[in-house]
Amino acid sequence: MTVFLENARIINPETLEESSGNLILHEGLIAAIGAASAPKGAQIIDCAGKCVAPGIVDLGVKIGEPGERHRESFRSAGLAAAAGGVTTIIARPDTSPAIDTPEVLEFVTRRAAEAPVRIHHMAALTKSRKGHEMVEIGFMLDAGALAFTDCDHVVTDTKVLGRALSYARSLGALVIGHPQDPGLSKGAAVTSGKFASLLGLPGVHPMAERIGLDRDLGMVEMTGVRYHADQITCARSLPPLERAKANGLDVTAGVSIHHLTLNDLDVGDYRSFFKLTPPLRPEEDRMAVVEAVASGLIDIICSMHSPQDEESKRLPFEDAAPGAVALQTFLPAAMRLYHAGAMDLPMLFRAMSLNPAKRLGLPQGRMAEGAPADLVLFDPDAPFMLDRSKLLSKSKNTPFDGQRMEGRVIATFVAGRQVFGQEGMNNA
């Protein structure tokens, strides 16, 4: 089917420009931008001046299959993603069992086919994410793995890590690290400081992230591997990241939408939905990281979607499982940065769509003729109160429950096919 989107506010993250016009979607691709009239027989959708942008490419989503399907399935994650403007999910390998063999990777790839959005997978870097023996990186690449990571299980044996990175380098594989010193971080629930002491909660100093990043960057310099830091959340981590890029290392970095929009004061009432890994940071760190995204030093914004069941979260803060769902709240949370004047829409979608797709070698994330027609139509100004019971994820552990938000997804398209759309859309 051919789709004609008229009267759109077009967001282009490549040129960092906005324009008004029409788009034609045909055979899964963006066939034309700025067309004067609809082709014969096309489905016409009046965007009414609302924004059309490349669909979000979300790098680092936890899905419960295999092993924890009660927390999130491929289908529920796909429905939540479509409702949140996420058209491509890059799933993490921290499943049970971990995605560390071609057989497990092939299984989850088949299961992911039931989702309404695109789902690609990362693989574990070491077997069972235990940090003792690297996986068969070549075989995993052949089976479709886009990157390799042990997630928050940091490999402490630098000799094992060095061998894995050298082998990944020889195959051109991307390795994703979690920059934290595991010794300093063990048992921490919040960022250390006066506020943590007042709450009586165990904290971790932000330097734990800096130490972990320095170690990883040294290993990258030694091996020449392609490397991405999954979350940079502290001002102290920005100078070494900047130096690594200036020295020509193949390094990128990301940050979660929660660390861009929340700070450590939000845990003040001990609500475990605000317990994250790494923990929320002071406002000075949050602002420094926001500026780093705006400047391009931090390349990617992700959801770090981590579904947890009620039994895991309804515990004392120190004992509760970390993580929050974010697929469906990703875009409205990002609109907080837009409305605060921290970033314009093309900058945001550069970090949410274009940059993750480029880093992973995917064709998505672009607003250009011939690019995949993976798009989101949204109203950045539409207000609503978030009710977590209405989220489409199986788990409802969102820190934004009951908060006023702005930014509502009107429709989501994957390969030119509408996979989400609100009732009352103006279809001619």
UniProtKB/TrEMBL annotation:
<dbReference type="InterPro" id="IPR004722">
    <property type="entry name" value="DHOase"/>
</dbReference>
<dbReference type="GO" id="GO:0046872">
    <property type="term" value="F:metal ion binding"/>
</dbReference>
<dbReference type="InterPro" id="IPR013108">
    <property type="entry name" value="Amidohydro_3"/>
</dbReference>
<dbReference type="GO" id="GO:0004038">
    <property type="term" value="F:allantoinase activity"/>
</dbReference>
<dbReference type="InterPro" id="IPR050138">
    <property type="entry name" value="DHOase/Allantoinase_Hydrolase"/>
</dbReference>
<dbReference type="InterPro" id="IPR024403">
    <property type="entry name" value="DHOase_cat"/>
</dbReference>
<protein>
    <submittedName>
        <fullName>Dihydroorotase</fullName>
        <ecNumber>3.5.2.3</ecNumber>
    </submittedName>
</protein>
<dbReference type="GO" id="GO:0004151">
    <property type="term" value="F:dihydroorotase activity"/>
</dbReference>
<dbReference type="GO" id="GO:0006145">
    <property type="term" value="P:purine nucleobase catabolic process"/>
</dbReference>
<dbReference type="InterPro" id="IPR011059">
    <property type="entry name" value="Metal-dep_hydrolase_composite"/>
</dbReference>
<dbReference type="Pfam" id="PF12890">
    <property type="entry name" value="DHOase"/>
</dbReference>
<feature type="domain" description="Dihydroorotase catalytic">
    <location>
        <begin position="49"/>
        <end position="233"/>
    </location>
</feature>
<dbReference type="Pfam" id="PF07969">
    <property type="entry name" value="Amidohydro_3"/>
</dbReference>
<dbReference type="GO" id="GO:0006221">
    <property type="term" value="P:pyrimidine nucleotide biosynthetic process"/>
</dbReference>
<feature type="domain" description="Amidohydrolase 3">
    <location>
        <begin position="342"/>
        <end position="420"/>
    </location>
</feature>
<dbReference type="GO" id="GO:0005737">
    <property type="term" value="C:cytoplasm"/>
</dbReference>
<keyword id="KW-0862">Zinc</keyword>
<keyword id="KW-0665">Pyrimidine biosynthesis</keyword>
<dbReference type="InterPro" id="IPR032466">
    <property type="entry name" value="Metal_Hydrolase"/>
</dbReference>
<keyword id="KW-0378">Hydrolase</keyword>
